[in-house]
Amino acid sequence: MASLMPNFVSRFFRPFTSSSKMGLGPAEGGAQNIPDTAQKCTVAAGCFWGVEHLFRKNFGDQGLYDARVGYIGGDTNSPSYRAVCTGRTGHAEALQMTFDPSRVSYTTLLEFFYKMHDPTTKDRQGGDTGTQYRSAIFYHSPEQQAAAKEVTEKVQQQWWKQGKITTEILEAGQWWDAEAYHQLYLHNNPRGYECPAHYIRKFPALS
User: What is this structure's pTM?
Assistant: First the structure.
């Protein structure tokens, strides 16, 4: 039971119902008019509020067409946030991005992924504990699978030498959008909960 306490405490800062600000802000309608050449990148790195916030902040004007938080990797249909938070549905809180590969590469997004969270803490980021907070890359093609394995090997050798990376590399299955109030949560709620493990590490360029 003790291991569940940090996760339980964090629940007080993570509402199960909608906040007072329901609008999706500047990204509303961002998924419209996306060209056929666009690609998807789906990652899990703990609480999806902070993951979305950091990727939008750093790539919003660099080829990121859209970013949605949601659930993937589970075995139930149409999971709710409350259900996923129990850890019993098998889903991970995740971010699915649609991007322009001519402006930002899949590899660049994965390298940023490994900078903005701690991939060595299995099923945990900061005080958030549970399989729903696991580190994972969900690939959408054999090329993405190969790139994910290559980047993971490099960051293990060059960035995360002191711990073993626990990031799962899995084929992307059924995606479920999270409830509307989770989208752009930290944009709409600037003082909302942010996982303390979510910040950009100053690693050197990979060789």
Answer: 0.88
